[in-house]
Amino acid sequence: MPPTTLEDLPWNLRLVNRDHPLAADFAPSNLAELPDASWVEPHVNHRVDARIVEDLTAMLTAAEAAGTHPIICSSFRTYDYQENLFENRIERAEREEHLEGTEAEEAAAFWVAPPGASEHQTGLAVDIVDADYLELDEGQEETATQQWLMIHCAEYGFILRYPTDKSATTGIGYEPWHYRYVGKEAASAITQSSLCLEEWLVETYHIQA
Ligand SMILES: [Zn+2]
């Protein structure tokens, strides 16, 4: 039986966004710490869903073998940590854009997911930057690391989750560093379709996402 609701989807296709947030107490039961590697900064603990460690490691090993220098800068985040990030971004919108209340929240949510709405809480998403360019901005897409990852990530089960032309659908600005694990089969299908995860789930399973 193909899945007919979002709840029926397998773990690797779990949809998390502002319309489908996770509960505050949700955390993956099988978090695994990433082993020491050149893409893990010293004294930083990165945890992800244990089921993606092998493919993630294989992807970054291959990226390095191709001459690039990936660095993981974010992995699993708790609900509380995300709440902090979101509050900080709201304060920045108030300070720099002189927005207030709901307007400041909306502006913040385009760049930082509200608590519960971040894929990082699933343990299935990682932010990867180039060691020579640590900024989380559009310039990231020009780096050797992203150029390689964008072409090859699907071979390892990952998709670039927030493409530049899909902001209206995902509700999230372009993030050429946020990679989401969906498994090799889905990653290949999603990449070939040029759809974002929300659109692909609707088209493939006729699930309203
Ligand atoms: Zn991210």
Automatic annotation (TrEMBL):
Gene3D superfamilies per UniProt: 3.30.1380.10
GO molecular function, one term: carboxypeptidase activity
InterPro entries listed in its UniProt record: DD-CPase-like (IPR052179), VanY-like_core_dom (IPR003709), VanY/YodJ_core_dom (IPR058193), Zn_M74/Hedgehog-like (IPR009045)
Keywords tagged on the record: Carboxypeptidase, Hydrolase, Protease
Sequence ranges assigned to domain D-alanyl-D-alanine carboxypeptidase-like core in this UniProt record: 46-184
SUPFAM superfamilies linked to this entry: Hedgehog/DD-peptidase
Xref: CDD domains: LD-carboxypeptidase (cd14852)
Name of the protein described by the UniProt record: D-alanyl-D-alanine carboxypeptidase family protein
Organism in which the protein naturally occurs: Adlercreutzia rubneri
Lineage: Bacteria, Bacillati, Actinomycetota, Coriobacteriia, Eggerthellales
